[in-house]
Queue: 2 jobs
Job 1
Amino acid sequence: MTGPGKKTGRREALEAELARQRPRLRLHCYQMVGNLDDADDLTQETALRAWRGWQTYRGNSSLTTWLYQIASHACLDHLRRRARERRPHVPASDFPSVPAQVAVPWLQPYTDEAVGLAAGTAERAPGPEDRTLARETVRLTFVAAVQFLPPRQRVALLLRDGLDWPVHRCAETLETSPAAVNSAVQRARARMRDVLGVDPDRWDAGERAGPLVEEYIAAIESADDARIARLLHTEVQVSHAPWAGGNMTDDVVWYGGVDTVLDGWAPILHTDDAPEMILRPVALNGDVGIASWIRGRGAREWETFSLNALRVRDGRVLEISTFGAELFARLGLPPIPPKMGWRQASRPR
């Protein structure tokens, strides 16, 4: 084969691998930074760096490993640039007692089929244990907790425990030694133990929200306080991102306790000018969340309102993280409420 032909073949291989790995690389960047906007920028940066440097790839590692190396270093560069503004707002010891987005205000939800595939590698199809591991490490609380780690410990933990890669492959990706990877992972696990309050390998993200969602939707849409109260954990906490779900401030706000939650929701559920509301289940962070649309009394048009990620314990909703309607289009959600039984788009826009 001639030189130009060989180069063309390598470019085609890179193009195909980028297309195949893009959802997984996007998820890796999201787990690293906890923010969908930043993750999309970093995924694009990864592709640009790969195209600019494709001639330097010598095949000493797999093409997939090389792409993760580029993505990881793009994330490390990003975290270095934003070190001051991307610091958790509570000490690690307080993390279990506050909502995730209070501790990590830049936190955003994530939805993509890659959540179920992220632990797979190019060499083998992901098995059930991979999908379980991927779902747990993309749960909102876990992603928030990871933000407490120093950047290099963070990427080492996500490669080793999130993707279940062998140490030597993690070392290739980070361009360091296996001993250095082992040390970083051990320190990261110790830090995560402090943040989560338990060993990371024993951490329980909580029960799946799916079984509760239809009943929760019916209770909210019917504005039935008694029914809502039965679905809420006694220690329920609700948080709102800036300008999300009725929060008209530039700061994350939160409140807790069943009575306080019902009082806080009364204006949108019970006042004379309370809007109509429709809720639908959506895929968020490896679980089921809720998207909501509202329509003012007498109005003809629906408006996107909020996204809610739910955390469940003991069969009740323990935490509700509320995010703004600006994410609807980004997550492939329609601007008007779909009919019940609608299936969410699998690829964000």
Job 2
Amino acid sequence: MTTTAPVTLTAGAIKELKSLMDAPGFDQQQVLRIGVKGGGCSGMSYVLGFDEKQEGDDFFEIEGIPVVIKKSHGIYLFGMEVDYQDGLNNRGFTFQNPNASSTCGCGSSFAV
């Protein structure tokens, strides 16, 4: 059974993530974790990083990238797009979340 991931990764995000995964010393046992945690100026912050798969995680594969999301986080992340910007003014991962009622100026925290 194939389950569609609740989040999407843009071509820019996929390119940057694959570059990180291909770097020397990267632990190939790790997967990309996308999630949320309490905190930040708007109430919740995004989690994006490499981690071990844990009990209670949903597993997805997006363009060859193994992704885990805690089951309880799916409601906050459904429909979200993760992008990577590499411009002069902005550099890093960005989050476009249709579930956020408001976001902070830096774009890394949100309220529902």
